[in-house]
Design a protein that fits this description.
globular; binds uridine-diphosphate-N-acetylglucosamine; UDP-n-acetylglucosamine1-carboxyvinyl-transferase, Chain; single chain; 420 residues; 4-stranded mixed sheet
Length: 420
């Protein structure tokens, strides 16, 4: 198993180009199951999650090839209709093959994903939406077994205790594209990745309106064709670099971004005293003075993303004062606190709230990555910690960041891989 070793204390300088969005790519790859024709997906990040999704597609009978950052897929005649536990348990996004399989084959068996380290992650909204379209769903031996004689469009309210759901919206929207009649999803996710999926489906010939708003309308069509599509840049990667620049007192230009996707976090960075200059498709981030403490609350888009909570906490751990971080999407997503505290941070958790007492410096330590974004937070903390930080279990990081260590090296960080 690999670990990352970071020698902290070097301000990041230069420019970095953001890869395509992982969270946009994975459902879009699942959506290619809706057509037997060839699809070409450009700007795809090559991550371990990408390979997992391609393994699932191949298992179902899809042919898939990677050429640089372009993925060619053709599902032709599907050979199977199931997604086994070994895939879904390692990557929750695999669950979004359920909607496309059901729409195309009228049957699907997909393993329940189970919980994960960031907390309980139910799939009730996915199932509620597909049932509303007319699917008959049973849970057998840990699998969701769905079938339908025919599906028909409905008005569906897709909100749960924590608001909208990104992948439930994706699953229901994908199923609805080939469902006769009109489906209306109320309280739909407004995330840019949901919009990207809808745009890709429309490129295939779907009739979707309202993406990006909480009310999405889908008029079912008989057939979807192949399509060429370019994935949006990864907003979480972009912001991770912005926070890295701010933390290290650096000056970094972050290229290939959609500035409008970053508003909530840029606003908070500016509040904290970080300079952020916005360009057409880049941002320039610089910090010279001390960091002011800033409170954040994670919310569905366009609110502050839960996927940036851990990295922002690393930033606030060295602010000059106390900040409160409230997690409203995954109230247990705080595994990084104890690791940051091992590096000298002073963070206290009370349920979904964390109180961060800013300290002057962090100190290098051996720390354990627990999930994707927590790993990123530990790497960022390592960039400014005194002496050496070793981050173990970085396979989490490789699930979601393309060449993070190489990109940080380009910016002047001293970071290298070793064996654990
Ligand atoms: C997606 C993202 C993930 C991000 C999350 C929230 C991908 C591949 N992953 O995950 O990086 O952290 O959105 O922005 O795109 N919920 C239910 N019932 C359901 C489904 C969800 O109660 O059936 C709850 C969840 O527990 C959570 C909230 O709804 O509290 C939002 O989760 P959701 O948007 O579904 O997350 P994912 O789509 O799984």
């Amino acid at each position: 198993m690999d670990k990352l070793v970071i020698e902290g204390g070097r301000p990041l300088k230069g420019s970095v180009t953001v890869s395509g969005s992982k969270n946009a790519l994975l459902p879009i790859l699942a959506a290619t199951l809706l057509t037997p024709e060839k699809c070409v997906i450009k700007n795809a990040p090559l991550l371990s999650d990408t390979y997992t999704m391609l393994r699932i597609l191949r298992h179902l009978g899809v042919s898939a090839e990677i050429d640089g950052s372009t993925i060619h897929v053709k599902s032709g005649k599907l050979k199977k209709f199931n997604a086994p536990y070994r895939f879904v348990s390692t990557m929750r996004a695999s669950f979004c093959v359920l909607g496309p399989l059901l729409a195309r084959l009228k049957k699907a068996e997909v393993s329940l994903p189970g919980g994960c380290v960031i907390g309980i992650r139910p799939v009730d909204l996915h199932l509620k939406g597909l049932k509303a379209l007319g699917a008959n769903i049973e849970i057998k031996e840990g699998y969701v077994c769905a079938q339908a004689k025919r599906l028909s469009g409905k008005q569906i309210f897709l909100g749960g205790s924590f608001g909208s759901s990104v992948l439930a919206t994706a699953n229901v929207m994908m199923a609805a594209t080939l469902t006769p009649g009109t489906t209306i999803i109320e309280n739909a996710a407004c995330e840019p990745e949901t919009v990207d999926l809808a745009n890709f489906l429309n490129r295939m010939g779907a009739k979707i309106k309202g993406q990006g708003s909480p009310r999405i309308e889908i008029k079912g069509v008989k057939y979807l064709s192949g399509a060429k599509y370019e994935i949006i840049p990864d907003r979480i990667e972009a912001i991770t670099f912005a926070i890295a620049a701010a933390l290290s007192k650096g000056e970094v230009t972050i290229k290939n971004v959609r500035v409008e996707h970053l508003s909530a976090v840029i606003e908070k960075l500016v509040e904290a005293g970080v300079k952020v200059k916005k360009g057409k498709n880049f941002i320039f981030v610089k910090r010279t003075g001390s960091l002011r403490p800033v409170d954040i609350t994670t919310l569905p888009y366009p609110g502050f993303p839960t996927d940036v909570q851990a990295q922002f906490m690393a930033l606030m751990s060295v602010a000059s004062g106390i900040s409160v971080i409230t997690e409203k999407i995954y109230p247990d997503r705080f595994m990084h606190i104890s690791e940051l505290n091992r590096m000298g941070a002073q963070i206290f958790r009370q349920g979904p709230y964390s109180i961060v007492h800013g300290v002057k410096n962090l100190k290098g330590a051996q720390v354990m990555a627990s999930d994707l974004r927590a790993s990123a937070a530990l790497v960022l903390a390592g960039l400014i910690a005194k002496d050496k930080t070793e981050v173990f279990r970085i396979y989490h990081l490789d699930r979601g960041y393309e060449n993070l260590d190489k990109k940080l090296t380009q910016l002047g960080a001293r970071i290298y891989r070793g064996k654990q």
